[in-house]
Design brief:
Elements lengths: L10 H21 L1 H39 L2 H17 L5 H9 L5 H6 L2 H4 L4 H4 L2 H8 L2 H10 L1 H4 L4 H32 L24 H22 L1 H15 L17 H8 L1 H8 L8 H6 L3 H5 L2 H6 L5 H14 L2 H11 L6 H26 L1
Helix pairs in contact: 1-2, 2-9, 2-12, 2-13, 3-4, 4-8, 8-11, 9-11, 9-19, 11-19, 11-21, 19-21, 20-21
Length: 383
């Protein structure tokens, strides 16, 4: 995104300095300066080795699989099957099924490449087009989040497939609410500026052709697998800053004083979030089924980066903080929110509807909360 110009020294420089200094001094007073620095470095290193590379491995495998599915027409088949349920649920044309599938196997911004395609764009009314940001974000990194959560079954010593499936259903509920809310605000906006297209007839969109690689079936399979794996590597590298910086911060705010006092080991902290969670537990437990106040750290982190949020899960499992119900809710909220606070502004700007960014963020906040509640309800109903 293009950067703006601002006065070299302004009030925000002093505010930023004050906040950073205040945070470091407060944490250092509680943990001790040396212990604080050692914990920061130790946690960041452990997250890089044991979490980031695991997520990257999942991303590589997911990328390879998604590229194979695309090469041999499975995604096109899914798109045509989904076509018949899209409009009743989302009030969007059938082309939106492609946006769902594409972002599910990759990430939120993948919808922007579709939005730039004129053949894709022409099937949307103007007020529907703005909802692509919410639709794409609702399913962003869905395959990676789901695969990662299922893989945690070994650590939890339980089969988590059913919990993850329920989480996916919860995310669908959240996406329907988010998209329809956004359409409501978007329609009002275009009416207010005299650009309503409600009378435009909705056209069906069916992909009759698809691009394939040249060569034999085996050659195409091999090339698709390797190219998809490279995309997974790129995605794995892209999440490193988010996982290390955000997870280290959140874990230090989540974990408290260890037995025997601070030693500077990894995963020590000052335990602020559990205190906040305990105060809100009367809301969190009935709505989301969280059994521990520490679980609040996941949805808070997922607001900014779902890659960082799933990085919290292995440590939560080791500490016995979460169970299968939380996995279902985490999957649902993580997939639906998918770091929307860090992507919505850029995505709406790319669609050239910056003025609707606030409405998009509000709609998606409600959708993510609904996704978590739906997953909790569905888990109680079916498990």
């Amino acid at each position: 995104m293009e950067k703006l110009k601002k006065k070299a020294i302004s009030l925000e420089a002093f505010i930023c300095l004050g906040l950073l200094a205040g945070s470091f001094i407060t944490t250092a007073k509680i943990m001790g300066p040396v212990n604080m620095i050692n914990t920061v470095m130790g946690t960041a290193h452990d997250l890089l080795i044991n979490t980031v590379f695991f997520i990257m491995g999942v991303a590589v495998l997911a990328g390879a699989l998604s590229e194979i599915l695309s090469e041999f027409g499975v995604i096109s088949l899914i798109n045509k099957l989904l076509y018949f349920v899209i409009y009743p649920l989302y009030r969007l044309p059938g082309a939106s099924a492609l946006a769902i599938v594409t972002t599910y196997i990759s990430d939120n911004p993948a919808v922007l490449s579709l939005a730039a395609n004129k053949e894709f764009r022409k099937y949307f009314k103007n007020y529907q087009f703005t909802a692509l940001t919410n639709l794409g974000t609702s399913f962003g990194m869905g395959f990676i989040v789901s695969a990662f959560m299922v893989a945690q079954g070994g650590l939890m010593k339980e089969n988590l497939f059913k919990a993850v499936l329920i989480g996916n259903l919860g995310a669908v509920v959240g996406s329907i609410i988010s998209v329809n809310l956004m359409l409501h605000y978007s329609k009002k906006y275009f009416k207010s500026i005299g650009e309503s297209e409600e009378e435009k007839e909705i056209e069906k969109f069916v992909l009759d052709t698809r691009e394939i690689r040249r060569g034999s079936i085996f050659g195409r399979f091999l090339e698709a697998m390797l190219e998809g794996g490279k995309v997974g590597v790129d995605m794995g590298i892209a999440i490193i800053p988010g996982v290390i910086i955000i997870c280290t911060t959140v874990l230090m705010l989540t974990n408290g004083l260890p037995q025997g006092g601070y030693t500077g080991a990894a995963y020590e902290g000052i335990g602020i979030l559990p205190i906040i969670g305990a105060k809100l537990n009367f809301i969190l437990k009935p709505l989301f089924g969280f059994t521990s106040p520490q679980a609040i750290a996941f949805p808070i982190t997922a607001l900014g980066a779902v890659g960082a949020a799933i990085g919290l899960v292995p440590q939560f499992i080791k500490e016995g903080v979460i169970g299968p119900r939380e996995i279902a809710v985490f999957t649902s909220m993580g997939m639906c929110w998918s770091g929307y606070l860090s992507t919505h502004v850029a995505m709406m700007d790319s669609l050239k509807y910056r003025e609707l960014t606030g409405k998009a963020i509000f709609s998606h906040t409600i959708g993510g909360l609904a996704a978590g509640m739906a997953a909790n309800f569905l888990y109680s109903l079916f498990v």
